[in-house]
Amino acid sequence: MEENEALEFKRSTSELKEAIISIVAILNKHQNGKLIFGVKNDGIVIGQHITENTLRKVSKAISDHIEPKLYPIIRKQKISNEECIVIEFQGQDIPYYAYGRAYKRVADEDRLMSAKEIEKLILEKNKEKLRWDSEVCKEAKLTDISSKRLKWFLKEAGHEYHSVKNSLDKLGLLKAGKLLNTAVILFGKKSQQLFPNAKLRCAAFATTTTSLIVDRQEFEGDLFYLIDKAEEYILKNIHIGMRVEGMRRIDIPEIDKDAFREAIINAFCHRDYYERDSVNIAVFKDRLEVRSPGGLYGGLTIEQIKNKMVSRRRNEEIADMFHEVHFVEKWGRGISLILDKEPDADFEVVAGIFVTTFKRKHYVSSPAQMTVEKTKVEKFGEKFGEKFGENELKVIVLLKHNSKITVLELAGKVGITTRGIEKILQRLKEKSIIKRIGPVRGGHWEVIG
To answer: Looking at residues 13-38, what average pLDDT do you find?
Structure first.
């Protein structure tokens, strides 16, 4: 036998005070556990002399010195032919205190908890009662609900519309006639007036860092509107390829649309709405990040959501409404879907923010890759009897990878001023190496040959 976070050994009842502390520490970590008197901490069974008075003494100590009250199973048991006392205990009324102080189990040690840890434990205990999405929005009235948005939702979900009040009541979004937060943030005419975090922030950057912003936008409104805007912003700021099927042109984004849409929906579905921060979209030259405040919920880890296909829903009401219109499934398959479409997608929690990252396929990521591309362009230049300078080569490579790249983006990538880029573009146009198709806004570059 070995000690662990839920199992503690004591040589004898002479260590009764330490045993009381261990019981409390285990309860505060796991809500159940076992303690055995008559075993050394290395697992060697030595037993001890036990009388009825010994068992009463143990029971009284637990009753007198643990709060809230605990009612464990205490019994004599032979282990390796030695008499031992086995105590099995469980309790959900955390935090528990031993001699007026709270402890927490860390490996096989009992550590005194700080005030901050106790506060966190109490909040965790009451999380089911403190769900933001099931709370009443005291300031909201039925006239704050958009009947147009509600009718759209009911049609998508296959339900009939009768009136705002009747429909919301059938959806379970009223409590004693009052609107729940979920009703307002999904169907509100101006959700942001009641919830400042009913917001989406988007930015596109010229490089792989936040040093140079090329575009920044903010959107406010109900969650369905914000999800659509997030999708539109991403499609506007990543590369779109195409294929032809019959007489139809099919657009193909460099990042699978279903994958990043799932990440967007997850961000709004599972975020912490007690946080004032917004869902953020960041488009870098090499990647797309979807950031959701609140981190993972219910003690889940990155490994579990990736490999076990399990989920814990922070916002049950919002998740149920999204399920009604087929935005999410109840089986926690969102991460699996993302990885199926984009196997290189990555997930991490940074400072309480859950980040989903997608690699951009058109990014020239390494010096070796750039060298290969330069060689191709050099050979291409030989057709024209041209020998390009280093910056000209970089510009041509970048134009071949992204025909809609801007002068500002080129400057950030090449590492020279925008004026220098304009001079290079002009020289390349004069030599008929490149040409501009369409206007400055909305047009694109074409590398000839």
So the answer is: 96
Instruction: Return the biggest CA–CA distance within the chain.
Output: 103
Identify the CATH number of the domain in which residue 102 sits: 3.30.950.30
The Cα angle at residue 88 between residues 86 and 92, in degrees rounded to 5: 160
325 and 415 part of one domain: no
Q: Which of 299, 297, 291, 304 lies closest to 335, judged by CA?
A: 304
Contact 174, 183 (CB under 8 A): yes
Q: Report the number of distinct structural domains present in the chain.
A: 4
For 180-203, give one letter per residue: b (16+ CB within 10 A) or e.
bbbbbbbbbeebbebbebbbbbbb
User: Each residue of 106-154: pLDDT tens digit?
Assistant: 988 999 999 999 988 887 777 656 789 999 999 999 999 999 999 999 9
Comparing C-alpha atoms, which of 188, 200, 193 is closest to residue 278? 200
Over residues 302-316, the pLDDT tens digits come to 888 888 766 778 899
Q: State the sign of the Cα–Cα–Cα–Cα dihedral 20, 25, 26, 27.
A: positive
Neighbours of 204 (CB within 10 A): 22
Tell me phi and psi for residue 228, to 5 degrees. Answer: -65, -40
Render the burial of 146-178: b for 16+ CB within 10 Å, e for the rest. Answer: beebbbebbeeeeeeeeebeebbeebebbeeee
Residues 6+ apart with CB under 8 A from 32: 6, 26, 88, 89, 90, 91
The rounded distance, in Å, linking the Cα atoms of 447 and 425 is 11
* DSSP state letter for 100: T
Backbone angles phi, psi at 73, to 5 degrees: -90, 120
Please name the residues in contact with 246: beta carbons below 8 A apart, sequence gap of 6 or more.
none
pTM over 0.90: no
Residue 390 has a pLDDT of: 75
Q: Which structural domain, as residue segments, surrounds residue 374?
A: 367-447
> CA 333, 334, 339, 345 torsion: positive or negative?
negative
